[in-house]
Each structure stands twice: as C-alpha cells, then as structure tokens.
Write a structure and sequence with these properties.
three-stranded mixed sheet, binds coenzyme A, about 40% helix, about 475 residues, alpha+beta, ten-stranded mixed sheet
Length: about 475
C-alpha cells in the first residue's frame, strides 16, 4: 500500500524583522547573518497569535483547498516544542477552533495527540500516522499532521538570529499525490543529551549552540548509516562499486534551524559517504590538503569537541570541501531549493524540514524540472536527542498541487517591525489586543484566563472574518 503526503498548507505570521536592522541593533556584521547564518528575515508572531492558532490556520487552509470535511479525517496530530499546557494537548485547541467553522462536535469521531521531541517530533507523527493507515486501522479516513512552532531565544543571545515562527499542515493518506514514503527503511537513533532544552516555566531554551550543531550532524549520520543498511538489504536502492547511495537520492531535505545548517549537514554526510570512493582523490586535489583525522578513535562528540586542533582543521577542511565542484554540483542540484524559504522565514523547529520540503517542491517546479519518481532523502533532527532518516518518492500527480504553490502570495503582505517594536513583543510587554497587523480570515487568540481561578490558563480563540 502506498502512503504518504497528499498535500500540505502553510501558515506564516505577517510580522518580520529584517537582518540588516537586526545586525545594526546588535552590532553584528550583516554579512555574518546573510552569509554565515543565511538569514534575511525572521517571521515573528503578533500579540494575538500562538502556535495553536497558527496550527489551526494551516489546517483550515489544507481542509478548504481540498474540500475536506471533518468526517474525512480520522486523526489529527500536532507536533510542537512550543506547548501551551502541561496536560491539554495542542490538537484539542485546534479542534476547538475548527469547530467554530465546521460545527460543535464535528471532529468527535477522530483521535490524536500532541507529540514532543524537539524538532524531530513531526517526523515521528508522520511515521506513526502512515503506519496507522498501512495497518488499515483508519477505516477509510485520512490523517492530518500539523507541525507548529515559535522559535524564540533570549534577547542578545547567539540563538536570537535563528528565530522564526510558522505552521504546516500535511494530509496523510493512501495513494497520495505528492510523496509516497518508502516502506521498511525509516531509521532512528536516540540518546539522552542536553544540547538544547527548555525546562518547565521557561519561554526560551537553554542552548549549547555549537554542541547542538555537531550533535545534529553526528546523530543524523548514525541514523543514515542504519537507513543505508536497510535500503541495501531491502533492495530499495542498488549501488555499484564506487557508488554511494547518496548518488541515488535525487533530493535532500534536512532539518533547517537556519539556512546555512542545511549546507553543513549535506557536507558532513557527503564527506562520510565519499571518502572511501575513487572520486575522493580528485576532491582532495581540489581542496588542496588532506582531510584531518581525530586523535580519539572512538569519535564520540565529547572527544571530538575536546580536540581543539582537530576541530579547527576540520572546520577549515569543511569550508574548502563546500567550494569543490563535487560538492557544489550536489548542493545546487539536490538541496538549494529546499533552503529558499528558511532565509525569509527563519527557524520553525518542528516545521523547519517540512517548510524545506515545501520550498524544494515549489522552487524545483519553477525551474521546469520534472520531479516525477524523484526520491527525496529526509534527515530529521531533534535536540535532546533523536534523529530520523527516511525517504519518499514524488508522485506523478504532484503537479496538480505544486503548480499552485507560491510562497510570496501565500505568506502575503508582511509588516516589518522596527527593533523597538520587536523588543516590546519579545518581552511580552503588549496586551493581546495591541496587535500590529490586521487578521482577516484567520484564527486569533482573544483571551487567556478567566475571572475565576479554575479558568486560569484557559485560552479563547476567534475566527476573524
Ligand atoms: N561574514 C560572513 N560570515 C561570517 C562573518 C562575517 N563577518 N562572521 C562570522 N561568519 C560566519 C562564521 O564563519 C560561521 O560560518 P561557518 O560555520 O561556515 O564557519 C557562521 O557565520 C556562524 O558564526 P559562529 O560565530 O560560528 O556562530 P555563532 O556564535 O554566531 O552561533 C549558532 C551560531 C547557530 C550556534 C547560534 O545561532 C545558535 O546557538 N543557534 C541556536 C541553536 C541552533 O540553531 N542549533 C542548530 C542545531 S539544532
């Protein structure tokens, strides 16, 4: 049975800050943000927005554009690391909002949960729902998986220029029009880590940025090794001597906390996959020096990071490697289009990789490339930490969906915040009703809490006509 993503809809908040304003205010070279990080604009939520209403807005768009009724949906999962409640799941808020449109109790027959594992949980949600359909537990229903997050870091921190916000709703069903997931090859890895976490009560995470970068690379590579074993064993991908399975994957869509990280992840993976192949000799010639080798043969992240000489020379090698014609060709053909959206929206945590997929489909289609039967390899990472590697194949009907994808018009007109406005928003100085932009045809938050203690934390939403 083929199962996968049939369609997807996005919601991006209408406020943003510009990298040049940000660089000036923080005394950072603007080239660092645009080239070193890959950030031009970061989407910011308004006073009356939260991850639940962004999720509901993306879901409503998905349902309306596919003429779906609640009776067509058997499960609705929301994956997020911006939880609003320790107990009440975010999908229940979303159902409440959608019932303002579709009628009270209209989703009662369905099920679902909120999923959490930093940025990787959306991938687990998709996998679980695909398997629910493969197991024929769905009784003819489709599933909707929504990924929604607000990436918010402390003012003045290094994470502050990797913020963003947005949601994506994905329709998961049999015989999907967009992407069919390859069965029996999904691979995961999990380990207790403290690279990035947000203890109870904190609005912003505690993050060891550099450590999280390397952990991401290492964990995805480990999951990829297990994926590789499975694809070769099942015969999904066949390779000849002197080939890597990366040669047989047409596109790469990976977790994108910031645009530049996609490029780093690809470079890390290709170095690992290519260093035993014949082409490596020519690559080294182009680089001009040998790839450094860590002193500690265990190659654990702790031992590598503690080896400062190795880290410095390895960074130097990576910078030279990404300039080689070998890397550039793969990067430009197989990844670049997936990174376009990240530069103007920023980090979306759970939604980052799926915004990358959206971006890949739209911008490759606009190049007039035929995407039918092209295989996408996904590298999903969540701090804490877990990685999931899986793949899927683009279906012939993709054009029906992708022809209407247009990031610019779907995001719509945005309002640029100045740095004073941004700071007031970031510091939660403004009331819910002091919003910066008009909200038409979307759900907004109108009230938190009630007049009595038993209503504390209760959230009320309204659809603005
Ligand atoms: N012009 C161009 N590039 C410049 C520059 C300049 N003037 N100054 C610095 N850069 C480059 C650096 O060389 C580096 O690029 P490289 O990695 O290709 O060498 C890049 O900008 C980042 O600078 P760096 O100083 O290394 O990092 P940072 O202290 O700014 O922190 C993060 C970057 C991502 C670690 C930080 O933003 C963070 O903690 N983010 C949140 C956590 C996160 O996103 N983790 C990802 C894994 S989940």
């Amino acid at each position: 049975m083929s199962v996968g993503i049939d369609d997807m809809a996005i919601y991006v908040p209408k406020l943003y800050i510009d990298s040049k304003d940000f660089a000036k205010a923080r005394g950072i070279d603007p080239h660092k943000l645009e080239n070193g990080i890959g950030m031009k604009q970061m989407a910011i939520v308004d006073t009356n927005q939260d991850p639940a209403c962004m999720a509901a807005n993306a879901c409503l768009t998905l349902m309306q554009k596919n003429d779906l009724k609640p009776k067509d949906i058997g499960r609705m999962y929301v994956a997020t690391e911006s939880a609003l409640d320790e107990s009440k799941a975010m999908n229940s808020f979303v159902i409440g909002m959608l019932e303002q449109i579709y009628g009270e109790g209209s989703f009662e027959h369905a099920g679902g949960i909120e999923c959490k594992f930093a940025c990787v949980s959306g991938s687990y949600a998709l996998y679980d729902n695909a398997n629910w359909i493969r197991a024929e537990e769905n009784n003819g229903h489709a599933a909707i998986v929504i990924v929604s997050d607000i990436a918010k870091y402390d003012l003045g921190s290094a994470g502050e220029y990797t913020q963003g916000a947005g949601a994506i709703a994905m329709l998961v069903k049999e015989n999907p029009r967009l992407v069919v997931f390859d069965p029996k090859v999904t691979s995961t890895i999990i380990k207790n880590e403290y690279d990035f976490y947000r203890p109870f009560g904190r609005e912003t995470p505690l993050v060891n940025g550099n450590y999280s970068n390397y952990l991401y690379l290492i964990q995805v590579k480990k999951a990829f090794d297990s994926y590789k074993e499975k694809v070769l064993k099942t015969g999904l991908i066949r390779i000849n001597n002197d080939e890597s399975i990366t040669d047989k994957i047409d596109y790469f869509s990976v977790h994108i906390p910031y645009r530049k990280m996609g490029e780093k992840a690809l470079a890390y993976l290709l170095r690992h996959e290519w260093r035993h192949l014949k082409r490596w000799k020519q690559i080294i010639e182009e680089v001009g020096f040998e790839e450094p080798i860590a002193k500690d043969p265990r190659g654990t992240i702790e031992s590598i990071l503690a080896d400062e000489d190795f880290m410095k020379s390895d960074e130097k090698f990576r910078r030279a490697f990404i300039k080689t014609s070998f890397f550039k060709q793969v990067f430009e053909q197989k990844m670049l289009s997936s990174l376009e959206a990240s530069a103007i929206i920023g980090n979306l945590y759970t939604a980052s990789m799926y915004m990358g997929l959206r971006s890949l489909l739209e911008f490759e289609y606009k190049k007039n490339i035929d995407l039918t039967n092209k295989r996408i390899g996904f590298g999903s990472y969540g701090s804490g930490s877990s990685a999931m590697v899986f793949s899927g194949v683009i279906q012939e009907e993709y054009k029906e969906i992708v022809k209407d994808m247009d990031l610019g018009s779907e995001i719509g007109n945005r309002t640029k915040l100045d740095m004073t406005e941004y700071k007031r928003l970031h510091s939660n100085e403004l009331k819910i009703n002091e919003s910066f932009s008009d909200h038409k045809k979307e759900f907004v938050l109108v009230k938190i809490g009630g007049n009595t203690a038993d209503k504390a934390g209760k959230r009320d939403y309204l659809f603005c006509n």
